[in-house]
Amino acid sequence: MEQATSVIAWGNRWDHFLARVGVRRTGGHRVKPGLYALGRPTPDSPVFVTANYTLSFDALRSALADRDAYILVLNTRGINVWCAAGKGTFGNGEIATRVRATSLEQVVSHRTLILPQLGAAGVSAEEVKRRTGSDVRYGPVRAADLPGYLKAGQATPEMRRVRFTLADRLVLIPVELVHAILPTAAVAGLLWLTGAKLAAPAVVVAVLAGTALFPALLPWLPTREFSTKGFVLGGLAMLPFATAAVSGGGALWLRLLSALAYLLALPPVTAFLALNFTGATTFTSRTGVKREIATYIPVMAWLAGTGLVAAAATVVARLVVGTP
Amino acid sequence: MSVAQASSLNTLRYFESLCVNCGMCLDVCPHAVFEAGPEAVRLAQADACMECGACRRNCPTGAIAVDSGVGCAAALIRAALTGGEPTCGSSGGPNGGGSPGGGGSSCCGGEKPEAPEER
């Protein structure tokens, strides 16, 4: 058995930072699966189960400061509790395997496992009881609520609710940005080099709107669906560019066509990124996401396609007419 | 089986006549979809269901049905384009994040997951 502490060291904080900016996302933030002793546990001490993702493990052990307990780390391949539960890696089979591999029944005298509530999506308490003889008790959603849960012996309704606060959303932005940065830089760079000095920053703004502004403003954007929220935000973000295009040089119809290109081609980019963000939220359903994909992906494709045609027409017309 | 209570926004179905009032669904649901009642649990806000499947897995009498599975837009779009089953993280799509509750977030970790085990 390994010894764990509840102290979050600078090395841990650096690891959390790297996880939050998407560095070594593929299994780079793992804890060795197995049984850990926190403090000086006795056979009566409680057993907490978690995932072998450093952010999950660290949230748990830091919430148990000054307590004696066991932590059973499952092998979820470096994935957090909730997502691993959704995939089944935080599940009945792995719990049974890990309980056996660590000879837990010889370490503790009781037969109770305390699981994070969000692990329930991959676990059947009945099945765990049948396979390991242990009773599953679901703790609160957030590890930080564990002291209150342990004191009261049960979770309050508030502890059972998952939230998606501004802080929860802001912390996701760096990973969204990191994923978008390369293709965006390539497209914007190419546009800039070919002389599209207004289109290049417009592309960057459309992507920033979808990856950074959207998560931040989510609850305040109108409509319920993510795609339409994204269209609204993307449209607003493109207004300055459309205005600049209208007030540029050349014939009026050309300027209007150019403005139209901005308003058609780029809001779908923001809307697509917004739709993708459903995967990072704590409340969207699979049925809802499927419906949005069926309804709005074709709309995005058509609008973007029409916008690109308008943009190409503007470029060709400018060449023919001879205005910049 | 008796008449199901359901939502038009998701696949949740609740068969109240099968409920033995153990309260397990109240413990596992992260969106307070169910509410305690004198004889049986009540379906309080079906529309808030996100189809995580925790209640179905932990209901001892099968009083709850819901289609759960990979819900990431990136995975679903990929599945729609390729005609396959949605799987998380096979290409490390633009998606990431999730569960601030577990203190962690890196849903699509980019690794091929094992098939979720059926109950």
List the helices and strands and how they pair.
The complex is a heterodimer of chains A (324) and B (119).
Chain A: E1 2-4, H1 10-20, E2 34-38, E3 47-50, H2 54-63, E4 69-73, H3 81-87, H4 92-101, H5 104-107, E5 112-115, H6 125-132, E6 135-138, H7 146-152, H8 157-160, H9 166-170, H10 173-193, H11 199-217, H12 226-246, H13 252-265, H14 267-276, H15 286-321
Helix pairs in contact in A: 4-6, 10-11, 11-12, 11-14, 12-13, 12-14, 13-15, 14-15
Chain B: E1 5-6, E2 13-14, H1 24-28, E3 34-35, E4 42-43, H2 54-58, E5 64-65, H3 73-82
Antiparallel strand pairs in B: 1-2, 2-5, 3-4
Task: Summarize this structure as a short list of keywords or feature phrases.
heterodimer, A: 324 residues, alpha/beta, Rossmann fold, 2 domains, 6-stranded mixed beta sheet, 15 helices, 58% helix, elongated, B: 119 residues, alpha+beta, Alpha-Beta Plaits, two-stranded antiparallel ribbon, 3 helices, disordered C terminus
Rg on CA atoms of chain B, Å: 16 Å
Based on CA inertia axes, which overall geometry of chain B fits? elongated
Largest sheet of chain B: 3 strands, antiparallel
- CATH structural fold name of the largest domain in chain B: Alpha-Beta Plaits
Strand order in the largest sheet of chain B: 1-2-5
- List the chains of the largest interface with their residue counts: A-B, 81 and 60 residues
CATH topology value of the largest domain in chain A = Rossmann fold
Compute the separation of the termini of chain A in Å.
Answer: 72 Å
CATH class of the largest domain in chain B: Alpha Beta
Strand percentage of chain A, roughly?
5-15%
Specify Rg of chain A, calculated over alpha carbons. Answer: 26 Å
Q: Could you give the order of the helices and strands of chain B?
A: EEHEEHEH
Average pLDDT taken over every residue of chain B: 76
